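Hi everyone, sorry if this is the wrong subforum. Our group has a chain we'd like a structural model of before ordering constructs, and none of us has done structure prediction before. Sequence below.
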Amino acid sequence: MLCIILVAGRGTQLEEDIKNSPNPEHQKLMGIPKALLPGLGDKKIIDYWWSVLKMRHLFSDVYLVTNADKYKHFERWATANDFPVENIINDGTTTHSTRLGSVTDFDLVLRHKKINDDVMVVAGDMLFEDQNFDISQVVRYFRHKQDGNLAIYYEMEKCENAETRGIVEVDPESGRITSFTEKPSSSAVIASRLASVVFYCFKKETLRTVPEYLQTHNTLEERTFGRYMDWLISERASVVYGMKLPSRFQLIGQVTLQDYVQWLEYFRNKQATQAIGDKPFTYRAYARVGLVGNPSDGFFGKTISLAIENFWAEVSIQESRELVLQPHPLNDPTTFGSLQDLHGISRKEGYLGGLRLLQATCKKFYEFCAKKGIALHRRNFTLSYDTNIPRQVGLAGSSAIVTATVGCLMKFYNLSETDMPKPIRASFILNVETEELFINAGLQDRVVQVYEGLVYMDFNRDSMSSKRHGIYESLSTKSLPHFWLAYLSDPSDSGRIHSDVRRRYDLGDEQVVESMQQFAQFTDDAKHAILEENWKELAQIMDANFDLRRKIYTDECIGKKMLEMVETARQFSTSAKFPGSGGAVVGLCYDQTQLTQLKEAMQSRGYVVVDLVPRVNH
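Answer:
Right subforum, don't worry. Here is the predicted structure as tokens:
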């Protein structure tokens, strides 16, 4: 693969402003080509590009094309920076009016050097925010997408004007660019905020389209890369994939001196504010209780779940020299008081702490970004976690840790909702657990932990097949009745409660299939009750939900203690059902006197009782 750096453009307005500026520091810049102006980090703008491009394992050659009157500047720069002078191509132009245009300069290099190879092309006079970007990620993704070309894009800040950019729309599944609009007018309806820059990778087969384009596009305005890419995608229907960079760009084209100074300051400030450095970022994810529908979330059913503030998992991320995953002193013990102490902890809590969740999430996050064409900057971090979610009581403690880890990684690597929308994020979290750690789980927990609040979820087969996620709707938490939670103080593994229901469902067992359909109907009825604030009806539905679950899972699988909790609750005229896979019950009570008596009865039997605090969705 070859690389071509374009530096033949002229900044006539910028040069004029520098010439007329009274500032002595600006006077020192007089006559200097745009690409050789100071950039970030005490480097010239082109120094950054050369530092990341001079890798022989990526590029067999790097060429630079400039104009005649600036040629000597680049020749001097080349000798001082170990750039082969023979790889500088002079396009022969000496004035702004005789300039060739970036596509014509590109074609000149292709013809002059008889290039018949894949080519990366970049604008050498482009300011780049992230000085730690690894360009090998671009090359790897381009080679991975074997059937097409590649265009780099970034997500614009609110202050950036779309009329000065090439705006792209990218298919979220394939990563292919579906439209490219060069500098859309203010009247154009453009929803995308994804901006393309002069940073492309072309298959060698695509290079033959360059002279084809130039034959039919004769004006200078048409011979820009933005217009060429618009034509290549829209008219030629060539396959062009998009890759998002964790950075922002500014081409020092026809800008003023004030623009140049402001962009330098803007990028410096962005680097300062985005650097986590000594300030850790913490993301908190909350436990959840399934109010209605569960366990049908794993069976193309429907559920309603509520995130609660009582129990949470939080993960903190902080920039560090090496990538470090810190074990939790309680959940990932490595030091014990004695062999007997080790035995007791291992027997009760097993060997599966939270550290594996952090590691698996990081691994899958890297794979997700690589597959989606999202480049990551080269910065390391330290991850630590804490949680107060009781283990093995079905409150989604594991997924809360994964959810919080994803939130930290998205913040650290500057991923937006566009990069990983909430429905996709919930599915990603599930995949971490099921594909990487082989945890038996459904989508319900991950959805409500991502959305927070009270969420109605429809996992119908059509939506799951076509979209790979369900249909999710946030419901209001403002007028909810009082919910309580009771759980075992010393629970055993709750995974056994699933019994053979999954196998029976997969075999088409009529009772199980019909039960899952009934769970879905309960959910729709419960949604209506919530919207109408009919809490008596909701309580009845919750009871019916448990009774049906008991029927298909049997008392043996439910367990004596779990049945005792439910039956105890019903003695005090309050509803009760499982909030998850087992180990706890959630109930609805709107009689304070009955609630007090219920708590005393539960506590006398050794159960922990908690008044739930709903998490309001934001």
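For your construct planning: The first helix runs from residue 12 to 20. The CA atoms of residues 98 and 470 lie 58 Å apart.
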